[in-house]
Amino acid sequence: KKTTTKIPRAQYGGRNAVTMLPGGGIGPELMKYVRDVFHFAGVPIDFEVIDIDPSTEGNDDLDYAITSIKRNGVAIKGNIETKSEELGAVSRNVALRNELDLYVNVLHCKSYPGIATRHPNIDVIIVRQNTEGEYAMLEHESVPGVVESMKVVTDENAERVARFAFEYAKNNGRKKVTTIHKANIMKLSDGLFLEVSKRVAKDYPNLEHNNMIIDNCCMQLVSNPYQFDVMNMTNLYGTIVSNVLCGLSGGAGLYSGRNYGDHYAIFEPGTRNTGTAIAGKNIANPIAMLNSAVDMLVHLGHNDHAQVISEAIYQTISEDNLRTPDIGGTASSTDVIENIMKVLSKKRVHWQHG
Ligand code: ADP
Ligand code: MG
């Protein structure tokens, strides 16, 4: 694949402020790579970096992060560890998505040539409800030894997510949407999710709509992932299926995930891992976070910058064969980043008259 995109010229104005939440584990080192690459490519973005410490009392840091995202509209984040195992300890990650009403998560798994995986050429999009379902965080111990956890499905959110899936399919030349559920057992909650998806499908007569039970979906994904195009599902199924799909096509270090609401967007690695065990070793794959940064550039309309960085990523891992150990290589994180910058340096636009 021969590419000719150049780094656009720097220009006054048109800069965006973006909230950066590095999170724990490998988050901070991956964010440093993002900033290095952006700096090198002259990306017109200024980051407002906010560290969230999950071990602190209270929610001041979280409130501060939310205020910042409301001001900037956009954030890039690593995973924030939830330290306390106590009942009632709130995941900062879930709280952020809920507070900002980021009702949908999108993960596009598109294989990179050259990486040995279980199945080649996978190209599947997961559209996941991102704020309710099994993540409603409504758990309590009714009597000692008995815990109840509520799964919440609303017509409104099921509709917003299904609508997003069909619109995405329509606007991206996709052919089919598959709704994933367990409506045979959870007749009311998943039943509603399925029913709403069928209702929304009527507005898209040119798209095929089918549905599949979550357990069969996992088996089908592992044995024949090519039958899937755009997938629509509730929150917990979404995180499990995302991990299955990423595992089939290169793992946790490659793909980005996008969280959208009507007003805000947060970009992060698709499988949302903290990576505590590999932090500080210069072995973490920087690509998933870089792809999140590319998604963010597209969202902000910096399409040329997005494209040059995306092409440099592709060339580095699929043509120059520089890969971290998680995708079968021997390169360090910084080897990969240095190569990306080397590729970018050939795409610089030099000042000229006229
Ligand atoms: P969690 O945060 O959900 O506990 P982990 O941090 O244990 O997840 O990550 C799951 C697996 O994915 C681990 O084996 C981890 O090393 C791997 N992993 C996650 N992110 C990356 C990355 N960027 N590069 C390489 N491996 C990664
Ligand atoms: Mg972990």
Automatic annotation (TrEMBL):
Keyword check for Mitochondrion: yes
Residue stretches making up the Isopropylmalate dehydrogenase-like domain: 17-340
Stated name of the protein: Isopropylmalate dehydrogenase-like domain-containing protein
Gene Ontology biological process terms from the UniProt entry: isocitrate metabolic process; tricarboxylic acid cycle
A GO CC annotation given for this chain: mitochondrion
Keywords for the protein's UniProt record, in alphabetical order: Mitochondrion, Transit peptide, Tricarboxylic acid cycle
Family the entry assigns: Belongs to the isocitrate and isopropylmalate dehydrogenases family.
Keyword Ligase in record: no
Shown residues in whole-protein numbering: 39 to 392 of 433
Compartments where found: Mitochondrion
